[in-house]
Structure formats: structure tokens, C-alpha cells
Amino acid sequence: METPALPRRLALTAGCNQLINWGISFYMPGTFAHAITADRSWSSPEIYLGLTLAMLVMAIVSPFVAPLLARFGGQRVVMSGTLLIAVSCLSMAFTPTLSGWYGAWLLTGIGMRLSLYDALFSALVNLYGPQARRTISRVTLAGGLASAVFWPLGDALLNVMGWQDALKIYALFGLLSALLLRRFPRQRFTVKPKACTQVSPHDRRNGWLYATFIALITFVSNGTSTHLPEFIASFGLPVAVGMLWGMGQTGARLMEVLAEARLTPLKLTLFTALAMPLCFLIGLSSDMLAWCAAGFVFGFGAINGLVTIVKATLPLELFSTERYASRTGLLLIPGQLMAAASPFAYAWLNKSLGITGGMWVSAGLTLVIAGFAVALVRSPGKQTVSHCIPSATLTNWYKTPAEANIPDT
């Protein structure tokens, strides 16, 4: 089966969907936490524990995403996840208890795993194979503006209404986001394996290195971005400085799109990892030079933008495209567990060691991350299929139940 042509507006509509989905889920607590604390008397760690639970649910749901994509298609899966996030925002607005708050975040976690980058990118690779890389990069251009749009937007809403009413507005944004996916392709990319080979120790090493690298870089990236408004406030800077984060993300991703073939996933991985320690050194200089705080926000925003592309495109270099969804679904679980721990862990670090102490911990971790990046670049190679799957079976796996002659139960 030939790979279908890429729709012209796919990157724009999918990018706007991701912008909204990230803005009303992952980036929401960074703006609303203080207002919720003042109203409910819940502590910051208690509030951020909700996001931690959501990311834990993401890890639990992760192995099921590939079968869902194969059976129902990317449009239904991503649209369903988007609607779940919208419903959870509405639930948070009406719940008066911490247990209700956490329950809403558990629902958010399912929605996030089904509708954020990882699921969307797997759907695109299923559809378009290696050529999906260009679309993935373009989708992240719009998605990278989530913090730049929703941090100021959330702050503006809180100036004219309570946080509950603001969450209702967020739920409406979720409905709009789901509508953007009406014309997302429903068909799947049919793959026929050429041969059956065993996974070599070299391939297993690549999988282990990728999983560990993504876990560590996700922990630092998510923890830092979640608490960025607190970092900005600690240096007496206006909330609008947070827009530099989104500008950095989008600017870095635009450069990656323009570079295209000249910047391979392995080169991008190495560049991103080596830039992280330097960026934190700039941030740690903020006590002496105020402009360094703004420089850190912009610089780490750029790094965070490239991290998203690294997570999505590095597997195309290491693993076969027909196994992309299933392999990443498993190898991203450690990263999702670390992502689950990061909001609560950074809330504890900032409370115990202060903003500067937390940044020193992050700086140390970035040196370890750089070491793993070097190891990955020195050990490239495609992942081979670990066991024999009949061609017809694999073809059916990527077809709809009707196409595969399977009862649609």
C-alpha cells in the first residue's frame, strides 16, 4: 500500500490542537496554583500532585495507545483524548475537595496520553512513515506557543473572574480543539515486514539508552517548565517574561524545520543535551545579573522545544517505522513516570532548597543527560523486529476492523 499524501492543512490544524491541549492541561497549574491555594487553602505540592497523578496515568495507559491507534485511527483517539481533557477541566471547576481534584486529574491523564504529542506523532508515523518527520516538526511550531498563549491568557482571566469560571473557559477551548480534528485522516498506514530477525544486544542497548535518556531529560524539562512562573516571580520579573519561553520553543523549532536534512535526529539530540548545562549556568547567574533570568527562560524554552522533536524523531533513527508506535509506547513509560514525579518533586525541591537550590540539582542532572546523549550518538542503528509476524497479521493490525475482516465488537 502506498503512503498517502500529506494534507496541506494537517500541520496547522494539528498544531493548533496541540497548542490548546497543552495549554489547558500541563500548563494550567502554573498559572492557577496561587489562586487555588488562596481559595481552597491547598498547598502548592498538593495542587501539583494532581498533575503528577495525571502523568502516572499516562504511563499506565501508554502500552494501550498503539492498539487503539491501529483499531480506531488517529482521529478518533486524539479527538477522544481532547474531549476527556475538556471534561476534566469542567470537573475541576465544580469539585470542592482534594479527592475530587485528584479524580479529575486522573481523567486528565488518560486524555493527555491519548491526545498530546506522543499519540499524535505515532498516528502520523503510522500514516506517512519517515516523511512524517517534517509534519511533526511543523506541528511542534504551533504547539510550542502553548505557554506563551495560555500563561498570559490564564493570568488575564484570573484578573476578571475566579479560577472556577476560568476553568470553564478552558473547557470550551477543549471543545474547539476537538473540532479542529474533524478532517484528520482516519486511515492507517499498512506495513508489510520484509524479514524476521532477532533483536541483537546492540539493539537492546539502543532501546535502554533511549529510554533512560528520555526519562532524565523529561524529568528536568517538565519539572522546570511546570514551575517556571515561580522562577520568574522569585526574581521580581513580570509574568509576561514567560512569553520568552514560548518564543524560545517556537524559534528553536522553526530553525529545526529550516535545517531539515542538514540536522539529523542524532545531531539534534547531541546539540540539545550539550546546551542544557550551559543554559542552567546562565540561570544560576540570575542572582548577580537580572538579565540572566530572562536569558534562562528564553534559552531553556528553546531547549524544551527541541526536546519534543528529539523524543519524536530519534526513534525514527533507532527503530523501524512499522514498530514506531509499539516501541515508543513501551520505551516512553520510564519518561512518563519521571514526568509524573517531576511536578511534585520540583515543588518539594523549591520549597526545601529554594529556587536556586533546585536549579543546582537540575544542572547536575543535565551533565548526566549529556553523557547519555554522547553514548547514543556513538551507538546508532535501526531496531530490528524481535519476533516473526506473518505479513497478513501485521497488515490486519494497521487496518480498520472492516478492512481486516475482523468483527467490530
Describe how the helices and strands are arranged.
Layout: H1 10-24, H2 28-40, H3 44-61, H4 65-72, H5 74-94, H6 98-115, H7 117-128, H8 132-143, H9 146-160, H10 163-179, H11 201-226, H12 228-234, H13 243-259, H14 265-284, H15 291-318, H16 324-331, H17 333-377, H18 391-397
Helix pairs in contact: 1-8, 1-9, 1-10, 2-3, 2-9, 3-6, 3-17, 4-5, 4-7, 5-6, 5-7, 5-10, 7-8, 7-16, 8-13, 8-15, 9-13, 11-15, 11-17, 13-15, 14-15, 14-17
Structural account:
The chain is an all-alpha fold. Helix content is 75%, strand content 0%. It is built from 18 helices and no strands. The protein has helices at 10-24, 28-40, 44-61, 65-72, 74-94, 98-115, 117-128, 132-143, 146-160, 163-179, 201-226, 228-234, 243-259, 265-284, 291-318, 324-331, 333-377, 391-397. Helix 2 packs across helix 3, helix 4 packs across helix 7 and helix 5 packs antiparallel against helix 6. The radius of gyration is 21 Å and the shape is globular. The chain starts with 9 loop residues before the first helix and ends in a 12-residue tail after the last helix. The relative contact order is 0.15. Residues 189-197 and 383-409 have low confidence and may be disordered.
